Amino acid sequence: MQNQENIITTSEALGESAHHSQSFWSRYIFSTDHKVIAKQFLFSGIFWALTGGAASMIIRLQLGFPTMNLGWLRPVLGKWISDGGKLDPSMYLGLVTMHGAIMMFFVLTAGLSGTFSNLLIPLQIGARDMASGFMNMLSYWFFFAASVVLFSSFFLQTGPAMGGWTVYPPLSAMPQAISGSGMGMSLYLLSFALFVISTLLGSINYITTVINLRTRGMSFNRLPLTIWSFLITAVIGLMSFPVLLSAFLLLFMDRSFGTSFFLSDIYINGQALPNVGGSPILYQHLFWFLGHPEVYIIFLPALGLTSDIIATNSRKPIFGYRAMIASMMAIMFLSFIVWAHHMFVTGMNPFLGSVFMFLTLIIAVPSAVKGFNYITTLWRGNIIFTPAMLFSIGMVSFLFSGGVTGAILGNSALDIQLHDTYFVVAHFHLIMGSASFFGMMAGIYHWFPKMFGRMMNRTLGQIHFWITFAGVYMTFIPMHYLGIAGFPRRYYAFTSYDFTTKFVDMNAFISVAAILTFIAQFIFLYNFIKSIFYGKRASLNPWNSNTLEWTTPLVPGHGNWPGKIPFIYRWPYDYSKPGAEKDFIPQNIPYSQTPSSNFPHENELIKTEEQLITNFVIKEEH
């Protein structure tokens, strides 16, 4: 505690002199202010969401309307659209590859964790900034470099990477295999090496900040669930991303230096390659050791944001605070020992498969705990249906609907039948893609006033939610039926075989629903951009929330609090407390000021408050 107080005192001293003059470049471009870096991640994530979404629209046009003339896309895709207006099959695979990589990593990982960990960790724990502002700045610029490298691969003559977003060898390991296995694949691997460096720099910073820079009174059992989710996410990323980096480095060596980590007994045009001794299954083990924790690197921040938003807009304490923390820790532990459920079709030993099946079904338990706690928090609450609250409730809906299909795929006997079908596509787009996306949207709507000092239009936000919510279900629920019927994923068209032509109309319906859902995102984009400049001016605490970020100025400067950082006296979920004058009590309000609402054990904490203040005054005098 003494070391922590020393750190905070130094931080406060720095904060009081932090408002020095800065040039445009040091303030907005190469900034070390965590709030500016959060906005940089947010704007980059929005750009990538539009790019990845556009790729998915071309995919859905091809799948839903395979006879359509796509010549109007030639100004964008160039030679990949034939003279007859048909999309080249190789480019279709390239779009699938880039869509998956962009949405998984550059939107949902950077857009969620990069944006909201940077924005909220210092503000909610009472810190002037991140532990290392310079490292934080490097984290964004490594991400920006990764973005530039990946985006440039679209403009290669040979096209972007075309091996699927998992880039399994041997296809990805042999430059001569397909046009997208050439320079496009090399840039893909380089981009992800830079992305992993960015993620590791950020994770180290987040962990260090939460552990060392909490303000006085901010014990771990008083942290908001958002901070717990960011902390656990950072730990998962720190332990899992280096494994992905090692897999990509070994793959790059197979491609460029003649090694055989993942290659063996490969024949091209009847001629054997010299590579022997490698195993493509080894790559899958390395990839999915990151791949499944990656699901929770995306998902846990969305759960944390949803926890605060649901409690705030239900005007109720979050139900089962400690159970929520325990469930996230259980998810963190179990996420590292279930990776091989992605590999049931690789010829895995059935006994080993049963072990991973058992562990996979166990991980449903902590997820169910969180879902139950959300519903119990909502039950009989005085619910305020802000756009953020609607997106949070939608996220909980996907948690259940996508989780049910996850239990089905966790059964190895069923997964072997369904693994390469649209059932899997529907499952992970619901539980990971849509749920996490809704969590991110909820976070943007809720903390927009803290980022920009203005309010987003509530009516446009509600319209955005309802179209998106309906569109997601109309897109992915029918895909489950396609999967059960045996429709294979990654196919270029469903008109090649008789058994796949039976559901052409359903495929067209899915494509129309997906396109309408994508168009609805421009309602958000219009609302977002217009509100930055012309939105209604926000109040200091527009949602009557308890957490510490709402005690700062409307748009806090570098250093967050102009004076001393507030003390923390209570947990962040004192909503609608019996006997209280208002239906919320911020964390920085002492128990001595709320005698009518204190529980017996809280009255006993008043002496602790007095001692805390006395110790601080003595320290300041010395």
TrEMBL record:
PROSITE patterns: COX1, COX1_CUB. GO terms for biological process: aerobic respiration; electron transport coupled proton transport; respiratory electron transport chain. GO terms for cellular component: membrane. The keyword Thylakoid does not apply. Keywords: Electron transport, Heme, Iron, Membrane, Metal-binding, Respiratory chain, Transmembrane, Transmembrane helix, Transport. It is a multi-pass membrane protein. One of its GO terms (molecular function) is cytochrome-c oxidase activity. It is found in: Membrane. The keyword Transport applies. Residues 19-593 form the Cytochrome oxidase subunit I profile domain. It comes from the Bacteria. InterPro entries: Cyt_c_oxase-like_su1_dom, Cyt_c_oxase-like_su1_sf, Cyt_C_Oxase_1, Cyt_c_Oxase_su1_BS. Belongs to the heme-copper respiratory oxidase family. This is Cytochrome c oxidase subunit I.
